[in-house]
């Protein structure tokens, strides 16, 4: 499932780590190291040789019995620290990742069927057959050790309940999973017991740590840091949640609608491996207890109970879902949070990041948001993570709290210039003389044009490791090292927009963003217009057909399956920053229907792109918790929140609102034929544009 993305994101972070904080000593160091910080960053001065590290495994006693065997569950964890914790009595902070994925996931499993009438889901689905899990003892994972142990941190991994060598049962975001990770932090702070074996009585004490903990991870592994932070547990000083869920209802549901996550950042109608997934499926897939061989039965009653409570018939929120809503407890968060998410993450959708981040801002919790243009996964640049953990785990006053709060990876076509010129011809050097260093930052990737011996020019990239003064950049390794190669006097060096070089903004959403409201004029079955002027009375009708992908409908010149309303071409680019929303007045030919709204960007030629989408069940127009009857033929006001977005729409493009019923990629797919009638005079879309209504109006003149 999502583990492959998790590993790749973590590995990408590790690849750049050594260059930002280069080792000061080889692994064969003769003397003991001490934590060292340069330019506010932890330096890799401790041994890089795993043979030198202090490692072990423990089983932490949790305050629950989720497998109902009459004994408190024990949670399997491993740890790795610099050897100086033994030889010198050094105490170090901890980088902690908790996950249900370490022992693997089921190769074969069944999602719920989605081709059925609304409110009539299948009665059951097949359980995953037995599969062989990876042995996670004595080493659970090594994904962060090479980055953080040489910098003077310990690394701890723990297996979620019901996975690997941990007791208990998986619950897909249930309270026991939160408390299991919390128990590990309690053990690191001397408040919980741990044992050297799963069933033994020999105690293990974490005397090698300061008790300051930072949690990090991607997807499920990023969700758990948010969950644990909402407990307010003492010792959890910082979290770096990447593509994290803040409310499991918003992961598998949308405003009363059963709505699946998507396995692709480019939904096409038939490429969603997660269509039909739900809480019970995920628990089934990660259930990997290694003490069960031949068949896993201990947790089947727990998974059956999950199935009974998910309610795929109505899609309503209930107490079962509410247990998995971390937003209800977000007021307890004290951990400094460096949040990361992808604009095009249709797996864990951006609402999860935006609502958690908004709460942190309101509570004045230290916060920062890295928002890239990719899909699921994608860690912040290593330099930002290093700043964050150095500041909040070691207490080094490195000024990270004074940096911009928002770091958005800009599209290549919208990349702001961050460049200077080279001062004098240079070759075979890691210290580059330049006209001005102000556009640059330590830890970012500099693009350097090298003139080759034959006169051709080739670009190379180097991390900036130090900025000693206003005219010199120190790079991770020399440039222009080949025979006859040079960096020419006056050549332009720059920061190209990429995941390594996000663009800083004061905050997110951009403080200058304001909602720009647009109204609808008729045009079906082709396209109507979006205009600032309210529309006179008019209605248009579409007919549901879940067999047609939304992107196909968006790009069809004429269609009865959707309604589209577009602006004139933009005369200048606009930046969207925030949450678009559509206000729709609709009538339905049936008592049950899906409603989907999408914001589309159409280039001057070629196909359009769906920028963001939103979904709602008209029966939940008043509340996620309860259905209100829908009377066929009666108009109802529906508010549809689309997924939050930060994107620049280029000049020449048109913005459009598309309204359709079922969304093949995400929703239940009933029999075609239900008609939706839209009252244009009482419908509109609000788009959060930097500069507000005036900026959009200027771009449409």
TrEMBL record:
<dbReference type="InterPro" id="IPR000383">
    <property type="entry name" value="Xaa-Pro-like_dom"/>
</dbReference>
<feature type="domain" description="Xaa-Pro dipeptidyl-peptidase C-terminal">
    <location>
        <begin position="386"/>
        <end position="686"/>
    </location>
</feature>
<dbReference type="InterPro" id="IPR029058">
    <property type="entry name" value="AB_hydrolase_fold"/>
</dbReference>
<dbReference type="InterPro" id="IPR050585">
    <property type="entry name" value="Xaa-Pro_dipeptidyl-ppase/CocE"/>
</dbReference>
<dbReference type="GO" id="GO:0004177">
    <property type="term" value="F:aminopeptidase activity"/>
</dbReference>
<dbReference type="Pfam" id="PF08530">
    <property type="entry name" value="PepX_C"/>
</dbReference>
<comment type="similarity">
    <text>Belongs to the peptidase S15 family.</text>
</comment>
<protein>
    <recommendedName>
        <fullName>Xaa-Pro dipeptidyl-peptidase</fullName>
        <ecNumber>3.4.14.11</ecNumber>
    </recommendedName>
</protein>
<dbReference type="GO" id="GO:0008236">
    <property type="term" value="F:serine-type peptidase activity"/>
</dbReference>
<dbReference type="Pfam" id="PF02129">
    <property type="entry name" value="Peptidase_S15"/>
</dbReference>
<keyword id="KW-0031">Aminopeptidase</keyword>
<keyword id="KW-0720">Serine protease</keyword>
<dbReference type="InterPro" id="IPR013736">
    <property type="entry name" value="Xaa-Pro_dipept_C"/>
</dbReference>
<dbReference type="InterPro" id="IPR008252">
    <property type="entry name" value="Pept_S15_Xpro"/>
</dbReference>
<dbReference type="GO" id="GO:0008239">
    <property type="term" value="F:dipeptidyl-peptidase activity"/>
</dbReference>
<feature type="signal peptide">
    <location>
        <begin position="1"/>
        <end position="26"/>
    </location>
</feature>
<keyword id="KW-0378">Hydrolase</keyword>
<keyword id="KW-0732">Signal</keyword>
<keyword id="KW-0645">Protease</keyword>
<dbReference type="GO" id="GO:0006508">
    <property type="term" value="P:proteolysis"/>
</dbReference>
<dbReference type="InterPro" id="IPR008979">
    <property type="entry name" value="Galactose-bd-like_sf"/>
</dbReference>
């Amino acid at each position: 499932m999502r583990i492959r993305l998790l590993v790749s994101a973590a590995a990408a972070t590790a690849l750049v780590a050594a260059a930002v904080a280069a080792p000061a000593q080889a692994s064969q160091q003769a003397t003991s190291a001490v934590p060292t910080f340069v330019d506010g960053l932890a330096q890799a001065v401790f041994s890089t040789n795993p043979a030198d590290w202090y490692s072990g495994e423990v089983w932490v006693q949790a305050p629950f019995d989720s497998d109902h065997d009459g004994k408190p569950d024990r949670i399997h964890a491993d740890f790795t620290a610099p050897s100086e914790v033994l030889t010198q009595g050094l105490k170090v902070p901890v980088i902690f990742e908790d996950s249900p994925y370490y022992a693997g996931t089921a190769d074969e499993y069944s999602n719920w069927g989605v081709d059925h009438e609304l409110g009539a889901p299948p009665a059951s689905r097949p359980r995953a057959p037995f599969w062989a899990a990876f042995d996670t003892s004595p080493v659970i994972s090594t994904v962060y050790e090479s980055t953080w142990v040489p910098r003077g941190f310990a690394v701890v991994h723990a297996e979620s309940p019901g996975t690997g060598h941990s007791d208990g049962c998986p619950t897909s975001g249930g309270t026991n999973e939160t408390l299991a990770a919390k128990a590990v932090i309690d053990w690191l702070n001397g408040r919980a017991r741990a044992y050297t074996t799963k069933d033994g009585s020999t105690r293990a004490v974490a005397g090698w740590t300061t008790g300051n903990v930072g949690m990090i991870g991607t997807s499920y592994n990023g969700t758990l840091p948010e969950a644990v932070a909402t407990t307010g547990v003492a010792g959890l000083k910082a979290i770096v949640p990447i593509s994290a869920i803040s409310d499991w209802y918003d992961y598998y549901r949308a405003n009363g609608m059963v709505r699946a996550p998507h396995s692709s950042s480019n939904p096409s109608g038939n490429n969603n491996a997660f269509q039909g997934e739900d809480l019970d499926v995920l628990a089934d897939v990660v259930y990997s207890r290694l003490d069960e061989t031949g068949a896993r039965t201990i947790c089947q009653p727990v998974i059956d109970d999950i199935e009974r409570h998910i309610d795929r018939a109505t899609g309503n929120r209930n107490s079962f879902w509410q247990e998995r809503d971390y937003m209800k407890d977000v007021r307890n968060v004290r951990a400094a949070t460096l949040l990361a998410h992808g604009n095009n993450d249709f797996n864990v959708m951006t609402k999860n990041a935006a609502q958690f981040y908004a709460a942190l801002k309101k509570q004045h919790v230290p916060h920062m948001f890295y928002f890239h243009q990719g899909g699921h996964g994608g860690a912040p640049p290593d330099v930002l993570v290093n700043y964050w953990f150095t500041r909040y785990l070691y207490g080094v006053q490195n000024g990270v709290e004074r940096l911009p709060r928002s770091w958005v990876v800009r599209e290549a076509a919208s990349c702001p210039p961050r460049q200077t010129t080279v001062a004098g011809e240079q070759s075979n050097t890691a210290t580059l003389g330049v006209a001005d260093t102000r556009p640059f930052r330590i830890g970012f990737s500099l693009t350097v044009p090298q003139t080759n011996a034959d006169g051709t020019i080739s670009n190379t990239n180097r991390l900036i490791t130090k900025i000693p003064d206003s005219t010199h950049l120190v790079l991770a390794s020399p440039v222009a090292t080949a025979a006859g190669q040079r960096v020419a006097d006056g050549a332009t060096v720059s920061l190209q927009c990429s995941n390594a070089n996000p663009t800083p903004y004061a905050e997110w959403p951009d403080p200058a963003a304001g909602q720009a409201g647009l109204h609808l004029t008729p045009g079906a079955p082709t396209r109507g217009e979006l205009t600032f002027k309210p529309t006179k009375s008019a209605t248009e009708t579409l007919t549901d057909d879940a067999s047609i992908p939304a992107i196909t409908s968006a790009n069809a010149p004429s269609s009865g399956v959707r309604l589209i309303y577009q602006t004139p071409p933009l005369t200048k680019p606009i930046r969207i920053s925030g949450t678009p929303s559509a206000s729709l007045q609709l009538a339905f030919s049936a008592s049950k229907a899906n409603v989907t709204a999408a914001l589309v960007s159409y280039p001057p030629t070629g196909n359009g792109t769906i920028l963001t989408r939103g979904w709602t069940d008209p029966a939940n127009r008043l509340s996620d918790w309860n259905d209100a009857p829908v009377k066929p033929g009666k108009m109802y006001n529906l508010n549809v929140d689309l997924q939050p977005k930060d994107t620049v729409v280029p000049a020449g493009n048109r913005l459009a609102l598309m309204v359709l019923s079922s969304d093949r990629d995400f929703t239940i797919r009933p029999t075609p034929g239900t008609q939706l009638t839209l009252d244009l005079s009482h419908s509109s879309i609000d788009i959060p544009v930097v500069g507000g209504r005036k900026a959009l109006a200027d771009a449409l003149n």
